[in-house]
Design a protein that fits this description.
Distance between the termini: 108 Å
Mean pLDDT: 83
Number of domains: 2
Structural class: mainly alpha
CATH architecture of the largest domain: Roll
Number of helices: 4
Order of helices and strands: HEHHEH
Shape: rod-shaped
CATH topology of the largest domain: Membrane-bound Lytic Murein Transglycosylase D, Chain A
CATH class of the largest domain: Alpha Beta
CATH superfamily of the largest domain: LysM domain
Strand content: 5-15%
Number of strands: 2
Low-confidence stretches: none
Radius of gyration: 33 Å
Length: about 120
Amino acid sequence: MSTIDITPAMTTRLRLTMRGRRVLAAIAAIPAAIALGVAILGGGAALASHASGATVHYETITVHPGDTLWGIAQEVAPRDDPRDVVDAIVSLNALDQVTLVPGQRIAIPSEYTGK
């Protein structure tokens, strides 16, 4: 009887040339570039639509000595939660601090002024 000697085929690792690496990197970067472009263009459109479509009605009051945001909130909207009113006033006026200065003019959202 005779025997046949079978040796497993040698497997070689795939080797990429410098050009191949560049092509592979470019192909991998395409989805990221597309996503970035969509985010930039889509974000700008959302920002533009927000700025032009939102109309805020408000009444302006002048701050007197001793006035606080909490006191103003209770005065203009006694039936509403003062925390919500203060938050709306701070947001509308883009206040970075809660200290008011006498003579300062602040806007009160019309939903709290009853007008």
